[in-house]
Amino acid sequence: MSVSIKSEHEIELMRHAGHLLEQVHDELASHIKPGISTKELDRIGEDMIRSMGCIPNFKNYQGFPASFCISLNDEVVHGIPSRQKIIQEGDLVKIDAGLIYKGYHSDAARTYAVGEVSPEAKQLMEVTKQSFFEGIKFAKAGNHLNDVSKAIGAYAAKFNYGIVRDLVGHGIGTHLHEDPQIPNFPQKRRGIKLMPGMTLAIEPMINLGRADVAWEDDEWTVVTMDGSLSAHYENTILITDGEPEILGNNEDYKNRYYFADGEIPQIQAEDHPLTAQQAIEMLENKLKGLTGYGKDDFVLGPITVYDRVWKYKKTNGERVYTQPISKTGEYCIELYQKFAGVQYQSCRECYNTRGKEAWPDAAGVSGAIWDADSFKLWATLLQVVDTPYEDVPILSFGDAKKAIETEIEAGHLRNIDKVQLAYAPYLDPQEKDVFWLLPVWYVKGGYTRNVKKEFEPKYGAGGEIVDDGIERAEVVFEAQKGELMDYNDRSAKRRVVPKIVTWDSVQ
Q1: Nearest partner of 284 among 333, 342, 339, judged by Cα
Q2: Where a domain ends, among 212, 240, 255?
Q3: Pairing state of beta strands 235-238 and 104-113?
Q4: Are both 354 and 411 inside the same structural domain?
Q5: Do 264 and 237 fall into the same domain?
Q6: Is the Cβ–Cβ distance between 93 and 32 less than 8 Å?
Q7: Rounded to the nearest 5°, which phi and psi values hold at 382?
C-alpha cells in the first residue's frame, strides 16, 4: 500500500479546493426545496463548479453520468440525478460532491432534511455527522488508521444503527480515490500509522435499519436492503502534527463562529457556567450600562468559543502543555455598530492607527468572558458625522464577487470567512475630524501582498492556534465600482473620497 504525503504547496491547493467545494455545497443547500428535481440540482452545481474554473470530478468517473451523486431516503450513495426524481417534503437528500482545482481533488458529502422530517430521521443525521467527528478525534500523527475506524463504528453502534460495510472512505490527492481504504467499523489489523501530510476522505454511511445494501439495475445507486433511511457525511481531512484539519469545510470553525444573521446555537465552552446566548446578553447589558447603547444598535460579529486554555512550552519544535490558564472555557464576542440598519465596518489593521492623519478607529465592541463574574471589555464607538448619501445604487453581489475573485486568482486573498455589505469610513479631504461612510463589500479572510510568502501557524500564550499562518485582514471593495480599497495606504490619497454615484445620475 502506497499512501502519499503531500507537500505544503499541495496541501494549500487541496485546502483551496475544499473551500471552493464548500461554497458549492452551501449554494446547493439553498436550492433543496420541494418540487426541484435532482437533475436540476446537478445542473446548478456543475455550472457553479465550472464558473470557478474547476472540473466536477465525479462526471464520467468510471462511467458515472453526472457531476453529483444525489441520493434520496433509502438510497445510500451514488444516486444518479434525474428529471423524474422530484424532491418532496420530508425527504432526506444526500449530496456527494467533488471538484478538481489545479489538478487536486476535493470530496465532501452532506445529508439535508427537506422541511419537517421524523425525529428518527433527525437523530440519524446527527449521529452520522457526529460519528465523523468522533472518528477524527483519533486522526492524529502516530495513531493507526483503525483507531479512526473503531471510533466511528463504536459511536454509531450505541444507537443500534446499521454501519455500511460495503463502502468505505479513501485517500485523496491528485486522484479521487487513493490508498488507503478507510472503513467505518473496526478491523482486525491496526492499519497504517498516520503521518503528517496524509489527506483522507472519511465518510460514515449509516442506516436506520440493517447494514446490508444492494445495487440497483443502473449499477450505481446503492440502497438499503430493508428500505430503511440512510445518512451520509464526509470531509477531506489533513493529518498534521497536532489536531487534524478539515480541508475546506472546517466544522470546528463553524461550530465556534456565529453571526447575527444566523441562529445562536445552544453550545457551551467547556465547564463554563454560561451558554453562548447568556454570554452575549451579559456583554450587551454591560455595554448598555457603560454607554447607553442597546443591542438594537449593533450587529453581532463572530463568537469564538474556546475550550480550556493551556500554557505550553516548546521543545524541539513540539508543544508540551503544562497547566490550564483558566479553569473553564471562554467566550470572545464582537459587536459592530450599525448605521441606517447596515453594519459599520473599519479595516482591523487601522483600528489602532491614530497617528498624524487621525484615521478613524473601529466602531466596535469586543468582550472576553471567562466566567459569570470575570471578563474584559473593549469598546470603541464613533459618532457618525456625515454621509454623502444614505441611499445610493450599489453593485450586486454577483458583480462584487468578480472583483473578489480577481484578488483570489492573483494569490492575494487566500481564504474567505465572511462577505457582507457594510459602511467603511473615509476621511474628509478637507476636514480632518470628519469622515464619510462609503458603502463597501466587506471581506473578512486571509490577505497578503506577497503572494510568494510561505506561512507558519502562530500560537497564543495558551498554546491555541491564534493564526493559521495567513495574514489576517478585513479587505473592502468599493461597492459602486468594485475597486479594492487599500486601507494600508497612509498617503494623502487616502483622504480622497471616491465619487459617489447617485440614483439621480443613473436615471
Answers
A1: 333
A2: 255
A3: unpaired
A4: yes
A5: no
A6: yes
A7: -120, 140
Which of 237, 255, 273 finishes a domain? 255
Query: Which residue carries 457603560 as its cell?
Result: 290
Residue range of the domain that includes 134: 8-255
Dihedral sign for Cα atoms in the order 350, 351, 355, 358: positive
Residue with the bigger pLDDT between 216 and 346: it is 216
Average pLDDT over residues 124-132: 93
Q: Is residue 3 part of a domain?
A: no
Query: Measured between alpha carbons, how far is residue 59 from residues 100, 222, 285, 304 in Å?
Result: 11, 18, 54, 39
Contact in structure between 139 and 194 (CB atoms under 8 Å): yes
Query: Over the stretch 267-291, which tens digit does the pLDDT of each residue have?
Result: 677 778 888 888 888 888 888 877 7
In a domain, residue 1? The reply is no
445-459 per-position pLDDT tens digit: 777 767 666 655 555
Cell numbers 428518527 label which residue? 120
Residue 102 burial (CB count, 10 A): 11
Going by pLDDT thresholds of 50, 70 and 90, the confidence category of residue 309 is: low
Cα gap 507→502, rounded to integer Å: 9
Spatial separation of the C-alpha atoms in residues 97 and 105, rounded to whole Å? 10
The three-state DSSP-derived secondary structure of 9-65 is HHHHHHHHHHHHHHHHHHHHHHHCCCCCEHHHHHHHHHHHHHHCCCEECCCCHHHCC
Long-range contact set of residues 125-131: C-beta below 8 Å, sequence gap at least 24: 125/92, 125/231, 127/155, 127/156, 127/159, 127/161, 127/206, 127/231, 128/156, 128/204, 128/205, 128/206, 128/231, 128/232, 128/233, 129/231, 129/233, 130/155, 131/155, 131/156, 131/184, 131/204, 131/206, 131/233
Question: Is pLDDT larger for residue 440 or for residue 434?
Answer: 440
Rounded distance between C-alpha atoms, residue 475 and residue 487, angstroms: 8
pLDDT score recorded for residue 383: 60
pLDDT above 60: residue 195: yes
**Residue written as grid cell 450513495:** 77
d(CA 35, CA 64): 25
Please tell me which residue, 122 or 335, carries the higher pLDDT value: 122
**Would you say 368 and 269 are in contact if contact means Cβ atoms under 8 Å apart?**
no
**What global pTM score does this model have?**
0.54
Does the CA dihedral 135-140-145-147 come out positive or negative? Answer: negative
- Taking the C-alpha atoms of residue 489 and residue 290, their distance in angstroms, rounded to an integer, is 34
Structural domain count, the chain:
2
Sequence-distant (6+) residues with CB within 8 A of 212 are 162, 224, 225, 226
Q: What amino acid is encoded at 84 in this protein? A: Q
Q: Grid cell 472503513 — which residue?
A: 183
Look up residue 49 and give its three cell numbers: 463548479
- Paired strand residues for 364: 336, 380
Mean pLDDT of 10-19: 88
Q: In this predicted model, what pLDDT tens digit does every residue of 326-385 receive, in sequence order? A: 667 788 887 877 766 677 665 433 333 333 344 455 567 778 888 888 888 877 776 655
What distance in Å separates the CA atoms of residue 59 and residue 385, rounded to the nearest whole number? 56
